[in-house]
Amino acid sequence: MRALLDLVLPAECGGCSAPGLVWCGQCAEVAFGSPRLCNPRSDPGVPVWALTRYRGAARELIVNLKERGRSDLAAVAGAAVVSGIETLRQEGELDPAQLAHLLLVPAPSRWLAARRRGGDPIASIAAHAIRTLPDEAASVVKALRFTRGVKDSVGLTASQRHLNVAGRVRMRQRFASQLLPSLSRPASAVLLLDDVVTTGSLLTESVRILHCAGVRVSGALTLASA
Ligand SMILES: [Zn+2]
Question: Cross-referenced CDD domains, in alphabetical order (predicted)?
Fold first, then answer.
């Protein structure tokens, strides 16, 4: 349906609704910046970075992507992620491509509705990021999934958010082997990816599950912090 609409309707900026482009120059300038360390209430025990605050054009982009089926914006978000990864490498927070194979692990997706509309948005952002990264040594590993019963976290309090995800993240065993390089070689960087960090509950649970499986996590990169 969206593809059909795209043929009839002109593009609209995913950040400010200006007509003409999927992502206008002004939004490109202001929406995302360099990764900034966050201190979520729930500490996953690894660094958590966000590219901006959850407001303005970045917030619009995320809402459009996950709630309004604007899958064309995954490439925009993916480019912001790539820029963030490059900065983290320059700052020595992540090993450079020559030294470490980057394994990007999307946080498990809560948006059943978005998935029905054409895919898991975080996995899609990760896929775009990997395609744009100049190095060959990078891949997406969709290693995490939710068990049944996880609600959309919008509108939940901090303790409800925690209860919502506690014990509900699982490893997808068929992907676990792809994370084995992080066990056998120090030369791989496992980076969790999510759109918005709020309480940090989901990142904490995700890191815990990966650690239990023996996977070393370098950090978590998010588009925005709430
Ligand atoms: Zn715009």
Answer: PRTases_typeI
Residue count (the chain): 226
Q: Alpha-carbon distance 150 to 32, whole Å? A: 29
- Distance from the CA of 13 to the center of ligand 1, in angstroms? 5
The residue to which tokens 């900026």 are assigned:
13
> Distance, CA 38 to ligand 1 centroid (Å)?
26
pLDDT digits (tens, 9 = 90+) for 162-175: 888 888 899 888 87
How many whole angstroms from 68 Cα to the centroid of ligand 1?
A: 16
Q: State the distance from the centre of ligand 1 to the C-alpha of 56, rounded, in angstroms.
A: 10
**Quick one: tokens of 13?**
């900026």
Residue 56: left (phi > 0), alpha (psi -120 to 50), or beta? left
Pick from 30-34, 102-106, 112-116, 188-192: least confident: 112-116
- Which domains are delineated in the chain? 31-225 (3.40.50)
Neighbours of ion ligand 1 (CB under 5 A): 13, 15-16, 18, 24, 27
219: which residues sit within 8 A by CB, 6+ positions away? 46, 47, 48, 49, 88, 93, 94, 191, 192
